[in-house]
Request: fold
Amino acid sequence: MAKDYFLDEEPSVDRVMKVVVALARETYVLKDRLGIVERKLDEKGVVTRADLDGYKPSADEEKDILATRDAFVESILSPIVSQRIDVE
Reply:
């Protein structure tokens, strides 16, 4: 029979983890959008919804965004991943 859980033999732990990941995802979206607001404020002094919705990062900004995303994901998941590695 296939293993239906990832973190523990208790499925409720996985459900809690799904909530944590969903909250982390929403937090990252907010952080990303706030970063755009800050960039646009630095550029223009004002920000419109159209500025946010139509924002396209430069190649350098894209690299920074991806590095920030990766660091954020690692900070959220590293305690879990390291625990799994220690257990196995």
Q: What stands out?
A: The chain has one domain: 14-87. Residues 11-44 form the longest helix (34 residues). The mean pLDDT is 83. Residues 5 and 12 are 9 Å apart (CA to CA).
